[in-house]
Amino acid sequence: MKDFKVVVGLTSVVHPNMPGDDRGIYKKIIKSMEELKDKMNFELVAISRPLESEQDGRNARKQFEDKNVDFTMVFNASLGFGRVILPLAKVNSYLGLWSVPEPTKEGVLQLNSFCGLNMYGAIIEKYFKDYNIPFKWFYGYPDSELFLERFSIMLKAMKGIKTVRESRIGLIGGIANGFENIYFDERDLDKRFGTYIQGRHTVEDIVSRAKELDEKRVNENLEQVLKEGNWDRERVSEGELKKSSRIYLAFKDFAEENNYNALAISCWPKFQEIYGIAVCSAMSRLNEAGIVAPCEGDVPGAINMLVLNAMSDQKATINDLVALDEDDVSINMWHCGVAPKSCANKNGVCWNEHFNIGSYENGKWNGKGTIANLTFKPGKITVFRMDNNFDNLFIMTGDVMKDKKTYYGSSGWINNLKVNGGEISLLDLMNTIIVNRVDHHYPMIYGDLTNELMEFASWLGLNILDIIPYKPYMQTYK
Fold it and tell me: Does residue 471 form part of some domain?
């Protein structure tokens, strides 16, 4: 997956007569941010000369826009001139206002830095009252815990936004028949994010590519498959495994040729009708390779997975919520077998047959195609679902349980459940999901990304779905 680095613009404002070393402090800030950009993987566009006038603000804004800056940081080295912020507030990027503590606690006031942040925030709200300009505040030096926490969350939120905005998604075969809840209007996607989507690719395109692949290349890929997981030879023939390799290579070539970093694949029933296999294991391998691949042509699911991948160094998968266990207050997240191998516990991946795509022959089940049969490894996970209008967000976290046996496919039991950072009972969770009409596909990734997703929603003005406590009467959707 392409790494869409966030470009941070940095400038400073100063007061001409404050007694503190505001210019010297800003030079140190630039040096610290230069060091930080390599550690936190962002690009920096820094204006070395502090701003003192409204025209300085205009010049800085132009420079940032010419450099395609994603996030502009206005550092209050001291109390700046109020009108400097007027052009900068309307910069074509997201905005941060930053101050540092006073160097002394008595005597002559040295910087008045926090007051500058306070004043600029109030100017943005009051002077631009009809513009709805969001900003985030920062406080402290770049090595302080408070600054690093807030800056890190901002970077991940920005990377999520930038990744979705610059991504290209190929929809193959349309939405799977009957999955009307994941129907979407590509104009909504364009309006919200500007993401490129092409939905006129067919299953036949991929199968034709798969059939034409060179046998030597397929055999080489098959060797790689056997390094990545175990092969259940009793249930899966070599021919089935080779077909899966062909489909994987066809998907991968297709994505690379079209510069797609996500493929929403209508994985059934067309692939079975045309090529006679399930394509789950190929999708598992795509997800591991960083090419997002949700099931059943779920484009909104692809958007969610792209966001999660951008915010984390892990790889996302997509699940159904299939079972709830009242005994230990846990839920089971499962799908046929598309999770990347990096999600697997110590037992790894087993390339196995599909559990319901195939047929019975002489009373014995004969599954078609291969799946990534694995149990999720223990650890903290985040589940994130943005609806097909790209307006409402469902955010849940939990812990994958270590030793609890699970279902065949890609699956795991999850406890210690929270929604929006707050603990939730199973009854309230069921009620929240159903009353809020949350879609049944749940993208999931390892790590707790609650804060990052909350910030992602704040910048974009999205609605975060609240917990709806259970009541025995019918509750209406808000």
Answer: no
- Listed residue (129, 134, 125) closest to 96, CA to CA: 134
Question: Are residues 205 and 102 located together in one domain of the fold?
Answer: no
Residue 77 domain-assigned? yes
With respect to residue 316, please indicate whether it lies within any of the assigned structural domains. Answer: yes
What residues have CB less than 8 Å from 256, skipping those under 6 apart? none
Query: Is 473 a member of any domain?
Result: no
State the pTM of this model.
0.97
Query: Residue 361: beta bridge partners?
Result: 364
Give the three-state DSSP class for 386: strand
Say how far apart CA 158 and CA 94 lie, in whole Å. Answer: 9
- Name the residue range of residue 110's domain: 7-165
Are residues 233 and 133 part of one domain?
no
Cis peptide before 269 (omega within 30 of 0): yes
Residue whose tokens read 């809840």: 181
Read off the pLDDT of residues 302-341 as tens digits, 9 standing for 90 and up.
999 999 999 999 999 999 999 999 999 999 999 999 999 9
Task: Write down the H helix ranges in 231-386.
Answer: 238-257, 270-275, 280-289, 299-311
The helix-helix angle for 280-289 and 215-228 (nearest 10°) equals: 80
Spell out the residues 6+ positions from residue 343 whose beta carbon is closer than 8 angstroms to its own.
315, 317, 374, 376, 377, 410, 446
Q: And the tokens for 78?
A: 């001291």
As for how many domains the chain has, the answer is 2
123 phi-psi bin (left φ>0, alpha ψ -120 to 50, beta other): alpha
**Gap between the Cα atoms of 413 and 381, Å rounded:** 11
CA neighbours closer than 13 Å in the CB half-sphere of residue 117: 22
Amino acid at 70: D
CA dihedral 374, 377, 381, 386 (to 10 degrees): -10
Angle CA 368–179–452, to nearest 5: 100
Asked whether 63 and 27 are in contact (CB, 8 A), the reply is no
Residues 44-64 have pLDDT tens digits of 999 999 999 999 999 999 999
Q: Helix 299-311 crosses helix 450-460 at what angle (to 10 degrees)?
A: 120
CA separation for the pair 170, 2 (Å, rounded): 15
Same domain flag for 248 and 216: yes
